[in-house]
Design goal:
- The chain is mainly beta.
- It folds into 2 domains: 5-105, Pnp Oxidase, Chain A (Roll); 109-122 and 130-209, Thrombin, subunit H, CATH 2.40.10.220.
- It is 15% helix and 45% strand.
- It has 2 helices and 13 strands, in the order ββββββαβββββββα.
- The radius of gyration is 20 Å and the shape is elongated.
Length: 229
């Protein structure tokens, strides 16, 4: 998607930014938080706290994903690093914008990891019903939801608590509130359920997106190796 570079002029200096930086000789990406600073479009500058970015390990040949917090909708861009001024400053140039729909699809990857669907109860609700918990596995995952398989069908008409194990180098479990979007019974008496996240912290969403980027890059590298053979 093309990008109206004049729109950069409307982004105020100091806006919070999340950026995913590609690394040399590694499928991993580093997530860093910084601030936006205007220059001359299509160029802009990102400024970070000392020690925030591994300047010696950044792959300058690969694009970065930049999400600028506008205090409402987020402006998402694909941009290249033109120059590293110092350990805290990156000079960037926009390649294209990424819509919210594209962002969601961009970060959706196929991966199998543990997920537990649990009953969702609040202090204001009628909690007379018995709590329940069903363990399953994801089919794919994104920053906005998951597709998972269970041997028992979870409730299809109410919110649930999900505990998802992030398949990163150091696995950790995040907890989100979600609701089922669709369900499908498979031929082997298993149930496929698509969940959309209703309540997830920015930090946990960033962890999922960062993990998706790593997995996606590995898949692309594997696909290239297979095609080369």
């Amino acid at each position: 998607m093309s990008f109206d570079t004049d729109a950069l002029k409307n982004i105020a200096n100091g806006r919070p930014v999340r950026v995913f930086l590609p690394l040399q000789n590694s499928p991993d990406r580093v997530r860093a938080q910084g601030v936006y600073q205007k220059t001359i479009p299509p160029k802009f500058t990102l400024i970070f706290k000392p020690g925030m970015i591994p300047v010696d390990d950044i792959d300058l040949k690969q694009p970065c994903i930049v999400a600028i917090d506008m205090g409402g909708p987020t402006v998402s861009l694909e941009a290249m690093i033109q120059e590293i001024d110092d350990p805290q400053t990156l000079q960037m140039v926009v390649r294209k914008s990424i819509s919210h729909e594209q962002m969601r699809e961009f970060f959706r990857v196929d991966t199998v990891t543990k997920v537990i669907s649990k009953s969702f109860q609040t202090q204001f609700a009628d909690n007379n019903s018995e709590p329940w918990s069903i363990q399953g596995e994801t089919i794919d995952i994104s920053g906005s939801g998951i597709l998972a398989v269970f041997t028992t069908l979870p409730p299809t008409d109410k919110q649930v608590n999900l505990e998802i194990t992030i398949p990163s180098a150091e696995p950790e479990t995040i907890k989100v509130v979600a609701h089922p979007v669709r369900t499908h019974r498979l031929g082997d008496n298993r149930y496929e359920v698509a969940y959309h996240f209703d309540d997830i912290t920015v930090e946990d969403r960033d962890k999922i997106i960062g993990c998706c980027l790593v997995i996606q890059r590995r898949l692309l590298r594997l696909r290239y190796q297979v095609q080369k053979k």
